[in-house]
Please model this.
Amino acid sequence: MDLINIVKNIRAKKSFLCVGLDPDLNLLPKHLLNCEDPIYEFNKSIIDVTSDFCVAYKPNLAFYEKLGPSGLISLDKTLKYISDNHFVIADAKRSDIFNSAKMYADTFYDYFNCDAVTLSPYMGFDAVKPFLRKGKWGVLLIATSNPSASSIQNIVTHNGNPLYLDIVNESHRWSNEANMMFVVGATRTKEMFHIRSKAPNHFFLVPGVGAQGGNLSEVCNAAFNDHCGLLINVSRSIIYAGAGEKFKDDIYKSCFKIQQEMELILKNRKFIS
Model:
């Protein structure tokens, strides 16, 4: 999916929501555990009730790889169930030498047919290059929301910049906003503001709104741009909104509430009428 279609979907759905598909067997509604494939049935239910309110899905590979072959089968079935008009990000956080990176890219693009893959940029361009295909996206981890991230990402380099900002500047030599995004945690709005000043046209994938304490309005104040420029990832607050047999109703209500907040922001910023 290209940039034009991402923006088109945001306008059409009045939403810039990305739903994280992070299924944990210990947290699934108990009645689903009797299904042949509980993970897939859970994901399918989430997709059914959220697809009208989000523009993207982001399965975190760790939740599937933990289960071995059966987890990867569940992932494959889930990805095939998602409609083509949703942007799909494989949250794999890959990074390796060129030959290995190419194998990872082939896996996620050719086999799983994902649109994007999250990547660690610290091995440099050759580890990122295979993911920068036309119509596909490398999503670089820049300023993440985990507690110890700033101890590395905010180290001041010989340029006098924090490391995360040097990586943003270096990445401009690799590609542009047509197939590169940045991961910036919702709790890192100060860094987000500085990153936006160096990357005015890139999309940011922003986890951490909701359960991790990030504030949607503050994120938009720091980084909203002329084409929205934000994909807000929400996982736990949506997918675990309910645990009973009517869990889909709770997921629907939670997702709809977030979409309504986003629609209001888009209208207030004159992005939609």
Observations:
- The chain has a mean pLDDT of 97.
